[in-house]
Specification:
The complex is a heterodimer of chains A (246) and B (252). Chain A is α/β, with parallel strands linked by helices and 246 residues long. Chain A has a domain of 152 residues: P-loop containing nucleotide triphosphate hydrolases (Rossmann fold, 3-Layer(aba) Sandwich). Chain A contains seven helices and ten strands. In chain A, the strands form two sheets. A six-stranded mixed beta sheet of chain A has the order 6-7-8-3-9-10, with helices on both faces. Chain A has a four-stranded antiparallel beta sheet with strand order 2-1-4-5, covered by helices on one side. In chain A, strand 9 and strand 10 form a beta hairpin. Chain B is built from eleven helices and no strands. Classes of the chains: A alpha/beta (246), B mainly alpha (252).
Chain lengths: 246, 252
């Protein structure tokens, strides 16, 4: 079976006043349909650049990136990005945000879908609220729901929960797992949070510091639901942290 | 601040100033500066004659025409200047050259071009309203956070829909600030513009009252009415800033 996402020998070099700055050096991996792959690496190593290239927001310099065996040439509704800063439109209500990506559908249908996904992520009753009237955790739910409502095949997540408090962060992970159990998206997650990666992912890609190359790829051998405090979990976390040089 | 204080504090301040004004007139025994009461009588006199509303209507008509015409052109221009770097590079220097020229400086040319009818003051108002709106709109587009544009692209929203659904609403808080600033300037300018050879408007009322018999009660009456209308206009614009669609930008 062909890979959902295939990254082959990807290089990225930025020109800077001090000469070329190499960010990615020969990144090579695949993500299978329905698989959850997390990319961890030291901060500033080029994780976000990697995600931007795979999602179509930046071109790579060498190598190939393909989704469903088609070379990526730009962003598309097939894969929606959920990022740390968030991109929920502050001038629209929660419901209008969820309806944003649904142009072309009849109004009634847009509304039905928006309300369905609002409920799925626990936003029922807040459909008419404006983003500034909600909390950081709710805003993140809006962003997740807005992505899900267009039925993307892939979710690209760039430190999605990093700006949230510790409790909300864990809660959002559990919510995400619950949703993925129903909707079966392929997910590429970029994070510096090793615990988050082990909690969520089927496989973890460990990157070196900049210029990033793949140090290792490892399978997370635990079934969901995963217990964050089990000895095996902690052992794996320590192993990854050691690889990251912590 | 609580609702009551918001009205009470400025009301007390204005009352104190009126009392001081009154006392100053009484103590100095001036016959030129009118007492507040004579100003009130002056306003009543103008209202009885029926000319007061005509003057107000004439001024508001000129401001309304010039201001709306400016907004209709300046908002689209500002949006495009903010979005297209080439257009900004081409037009911004010209904007910065024209902007510091006071509309009053255009009066001689305005009279040559448009005569002494309504068109000259409308042109001056247009000029004074135009630049604040262009500048604020451009700044509004320049400060749109990149992730909103990226999200729109991700959902396949581009072209005219991108402007309608993202660029304009994201810049709207700035546009409204520009419109509030320029309405204030427009109101400032209409009075000056009407002091030149027109037969109506609040500016004309002030100059005419002095020229026709040193009626300083009516001069001050005109000033007071201009001030109050300015306050009302500003309040109306501030109401726009409280819309839920734009409040995110101004802080809670």
């Amino acid at each position: 079976m062909a890979a959902k996402i295939a990254v082959r020998n990807l290089w990225k070099i930025y020109p800077t006043p001090d000469g070329p700055l190499s960010v990615l050096e020969g990144i090579d991996f695949t993500v299978a349909e329905g698989e959850f792959v997390a990319v961890v690496g030291p901060s500033g190593c080029g994780k976000t650049t990697l995600l931007n290239i795979v999602a179509g927001f930046e071109p790579g310099d060498r190598g190939a990136v393909a989704v469903d065996a088609v070379p990526v040439s730009g962003p598309s509704r097939k894969g929606i990005v959920i990022s740390q800063q968030g991109s929920v439109f502050p001038w629209l209500t929660v419901r209008r945000n969820l309806m944003f990506g649904l142009d072309g559908l009849p109004r009634q249908e847009k509304r039905r879908l928006a309300d369905h996904y609002a409920e799925l992520v626990g936003l029922k009753g807040f459909e008419e609220a404006f983003p500034y009237q909600t909390s950081g955790g709710m805003l993140k739910r809006v962003e997740v729901a807005r992505a899900l409502v267009v039925k993307p095949e892939i979710l690209y997540m760039d430190e999605p929960f990093a700006a949230l408090d510790a409790l909300t962060r864990v809660r959002m992970r559990l919510e995400l797992l619950r949703i993925l159990a129903q909707e079966k998206h392929t997910v590429l997650l970029v994070t510096h949070d090793v615990e988050e990666a082990i909690h969520l992912a089927d496989r973890i890609l460990i990157l070196s510091s900049r210029p990033a190359s793949i140090r290792s790829i490892l399978k997370v051998p635990f079934a969901q639901p995963r217990k964050l405090t089990s000895p095996e979990f902690i052992e794996l976390k320590e192993q990854i942290l050691r690889e990251l040089g912590v | 601040m609580r609702g009551k204080t918001k009205i009470l504090a400025p009301a007390v301040l204005v009352s104190v100033l009126v009392v001081l004004w009154w006392a100053a007139v009484a103590v100095s025994e001036t016959i030129i500066v009118p007492t507040p009461w004579r100003v009130v009588l002056g306003i009543v006199e103008l209202a009885r004659q029926g000319t007061l509303l005509d003057h107000i209507a004439a001024s508001l008509f000129r401001v309304g025409s010039g201001y709306l015409l400016a907004a209709a052109l300046a908002i689209p221009l500002g949006i495009f200047m903010g979005w297209f770097h080439g257009l900004f590079a081409a037009l911004n220097p010209l904007t910065q050259i024209l902007r510091p020229i006071s509309p009053i400086a255009w009066i001689p040319l305005a009279i040559i071009w448009f005569g002494v009818g309504n068109m000259a003051p409308i042109f001056l108002i247009f000029l004074s309203s135009f630049f604040p709106i262009v500048l604020e709109t451009t700044a509004g587009v320049h400060t749109i956070e990149r992730q909103y544009i990226r999200a729109a692209q991700n959902f396949g929203v581009g072209g005219a829909a991108l402007f309608r659904q993202v660029v304009v609403p994201a810049a709207l808080p700035h546009i409204i600030v520009g419109m509030r600033i320029s309405l204030g300037v427009a109101w400032l300018v209409v009075v000056a513009a009407e002091m030149i050879a027109l037969k109506s408007g609040l500016g004309y009322l002030i100059i005419d009252s002095r020229n026709a018999g040193n009626r300083y009660d009516l001069v001050v009456a005109g000033m007071a009415i201009i001030g109050v209308i300015g306050l009302v206009l500003d309040n109306a614009m501030r109401r726009l800033e409280r819309l839920k669609e734009v409040r995110w930008k101004y802080g809670r």
